[in-house]
Give the backbone structure.
Amino acid sequence: MFSFAITPLGNLFFGLSFIAFLSLISIQQKERSYILYTLLLSSLGVIFYANDLITLFIGWEIMSWSSYFIISKSAKLSTSQKYIIFNLGGGFALLGAIVLIYNFTGTLIYNDIIFNNIPIELRKPIYILLFITISIKSGVIPFHYWVVDTYQEADNLFSAILSAIISKSGIFLFIIIFTKIVGYKYLYSNIFDIVAWLGVITSIVTTVKAISEDSIKRLLAYSSIAQIGYIVTILSVLHGSSIEAGLYHTIIHTFVKLLLFINIASIIYITGKSKFSELGGLLYRYPILFLLLLIGIIGLAGVPPLGGFNSKFLIYTALLEQKKVFLLVAIMFSSVLAFLYCFKLIYGIYLGDEVNNNEYKSLPKSYYIAQIIGASILVILGALPALGTKILNPILISLDFKPTIYKSLFELNSHFASFNGAVIMGIFIVIFMAILTITLLVKNRTIKPRDKRDISYCGEVPHTNLHYGYGLGRELKRIEFIRVILENSISPYWNRVALITKDSSSILITLYNLTVQNIGLLIILFFTILLFIGVK
Amino acid sequence: MFLDIIFMVLLAYSFGFLYYGLYRNISARVHGRYGPSIAQSFYDSIKLFLKDKTTSFGWMFYGGFIIMATGAITTLIFIPFLKNSTHLIGVSQYGNLILVLYLMVLGPLGNAIGIGSSGNPFGVMGITRGLTRLMGLELPFYIASIGIMVANNTADINQIMINQAQTYNAISHPLLFIGAFISFLGFMGKSPFDVVGAPQEVYSGPATEFSGKFFALAISQSAIFSFAKLLLMVNLFFGGANSLIELIIKTFILFLVAVFVGNVYGRFTTIQSVEFLIRVPTIIALVGLFFI
């Protein structure tokens, strides 16, 4: 029954997972459970290499449970319960969709499923069930409720896995189901338009929430949801170029988030602090960590000359090609908002005024490895953008899409436009070096003020904490639409759902509790129903 | 290509300062003053560059300024000066409009990091205002750019210029142009969106940390960047230019309009700027986009 197949798509996702796990495992941690990590990686292997839906489902469940046990070691009970309840819900939805597909097609093997055998009126419920599973894993609104708390309370290094890898399993499911099983050609449904807009609304809302966060990990969690929102949106456009763009962004986001989360884990390890209000001015103490984070935020913001721009470019051109201009406007708006939290991330930790002068722990070298891997890939993809195309083309062919033609590894082509990454990188470096040389050649003395606050306070240096820039973003509450987003939360709605579930469960419990009184009640209920049917 | 790039940078540097000198003069006349000589800003930049003392807060402060200047020059050379030409096009054939829109962010990022590393608590106030305003400014400009790209079915700036042989985009897509022009006023640092560099309000903001060659670098890149923005507007909405003279005339007219509008209005606070930019030009540009 269980069948596996080695596919280019599986290779990409498993390759990303393997690199992420390898770089994290190299960082020694006493309290880590290696068995659970191995189980998790194996379950990802099962998902990515499965050739039938039931194998995929089993891998999905093992992934949910093994990650739950890892999270529950550090998180509060309520948080880990929230994680597992949502993910079990996603699992049930997936199982429901699988049962419906099997019922009408008689097989679970990807290539044997003829989706056209399913009646049209039942296709929408299948799509909805699958979207529930995908949205829960990817944190799309309104299913993002579990994400932020879980990322915050999970082990600092495991948050990197959650963001870089586990969230991508939803993306994998999206691609495998809608290309391999359903087939894009037969697929147009207005549900996909709704999902595309849900993806982009998710990214705008979570980006706004990220800007006003004081906790670094929560900011990164919101940022993860926002970035995955882009991927969900672009995949919902249902076109070959959008698949390429979504996969390219998946690669970039994996390495960016690996880099950023491990950088933050390093800072938390060194200082024991995890809030912007408790940090600041670490630039000259940890210059390498600063430079790595700088590369990470440039990649996250999608600013050239690093690789982050490539995926943004492909997303924009795919939307332009499909004339989805309003989706493009919304995505671009979210990207512009993201500059603010990118700056907050680097300013709050490394720039500004140093908050305290405590002696910090020294950082083991292993923390640098994963960050250097992520940063190197962003730089390499910046200069050789078509390397991503070269990796993605076999996947596009295996999914029956046209491969993207590229002339050289330096040039990234889309149907709408192209650019040369090596020229951008080369020009940037040459101009940077030229300006540096000119400024160094000018014969003047560069002096350093005795205290860096001398200038701003005319020599009277106050002895208080002046790193108040950490609160960047709070003033945005004065803008109407931002205030509305910040003052509202999804939690009351989910709490109400929990309450309703609890109440209805208590009715069931009462019925199961077989006292004489309840049996009497059941008999009355039974006859009432009979009477009702009879009257009808 | 190397000489082409050098010439483009020198041209932008000279005209950037010339326009800035004119701006100071025109503003002075509006205020009933005579104002400094037109070349004053240019002399200032040379004088500041050769000053024998410069205050630096460390290598990242230094690096931030260099990234800022690199961002401005890189943006400039990815925008062709002339239409369908082999000269004065820099490296624009290797890029496109989307790239230019993103390169425009590189300079402000370098500036923000440089100032942030100075530790000046007022510096971050200026940066926050700058980045918040940028959020409002970019939205209508991006919408207008998307509209232009969709209408022309290309992101290649040269092709967009060629397609305007019959009618300028400013005339065929007036709503997009209005949206982009209001943003452009802010990008040029003109009223009512000039609160970021407002010395009366941020009395000890980013600019007080600049000195010597860093200040020279800051004002020089600002002159180059202003010319790059004028150039982009001319290329996107006024059909680009066939010759240098045409380019100078078009950029100058656009510059004059920006200066006059800027002189008429008072100054918005940052929040007012963003709210206005989201309510007025964004909606105008969205309506323009709808009708494409």
